[in-house]
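**Backbone description:**
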Amino acid sequence: MTLTAASESATKLELPPLKLGPITVDTPVVLAPMAGITNKAFRRLCREYGGGLYVAEMVTSRALVERNRESMRIISHDEDEDVRSVQLYGVDPKTVGAAVRLLVQEDRADHIDLNFGCPVPKVTRRGGGSALPWKTELFTAIVQAATREAGKGNVPLTIKMRKGIDDDHLTFIEAGKIARDAGVAAVALHGRTASQFYSGQADWNAIAELRAALPDVPVLGNGDIWSAEDAVRMVQQTGVDGVVVGRGCQGRPWLFGDLQAAFEGTDKRFRPGLKDVADSFYRHAELLVDYFEDEGKALRDIRKHVAWYFKGYSVGGELRAALAQVPTLEVLRELLAELDADAPYPGADAEGPRGRAGSPKRPALPDGWLTSRELNADHKAMIAAAELDVSGG
């Protein structure tokens, strides 16, 4: 796949490399950990296009401590991944600390991120993810335990969070300051609340507010980066030290090539024709076979990527449906051969938002969670029980 000149004029950003403790990320771009997406296969595709920090899928701390087989697979990295980045989720300081200790003592990670941004009900109803920073003492204890263990191995630890639970329960400024004081290497903010899920527009003003409130620690911005131009605008509007890209790269691993070019001040962009997309899609499937060591599982996994890869391209409904049920690599080759290899890049139709945004909804929270910033006896018991649930990944 080749780079082509884009119609937009490029602006040279005087943005230095991102420093995370002993790690230097020359292109200040981070691949957001996404469940079922950012495994070794997809990370390799992205890395082949551009520089950045590529974070593995979120793994639950308890499952990691228990060495759940799937969790150990999730934290695996290719030998040529310069920075082995792992994201942890947990609701108990002791368990999160133990998980960080395992990663450090066994030399399984060069960078660790803590998830305080997930809005998924099965996470928030247990007080985790984007619900957790509301409980100030618990949040503080988790971050302090994690940074203490990470520091023993000089492994930089970062956090990723949302603005808060909803507009009436915002936590991002306070949580950012707590994390900074605990010694995190950077703070990333998704400019939405948990109640927004992925709907509406990300609040870049909140990201700018956090940047201003934390002048002494790197701040990263996340939300609505669908193109390299979006990333440039975010940096210009908010002053962040780098950007975090999630849904925007789904079906477009070449976005990281665009991002690197933009941060280098060039107007070169990837504008793949249909054959290029098909080739990348097939390579993705092959890498998944290697990752899962199971062709059937790999092909089931690639099916969810069909709509993302072929968004805006001329692919008939019957063929799309067949791709979404593809059973083997052989069948996949046959189906891709039916595509028009000469079909060009379709322009704006292939750009923009991807994935389901959903709609605003009341977050699933433990009973009485919003009543106080402190844990009550029931919440403490719930968190203890939650950490006993081994649920890899």
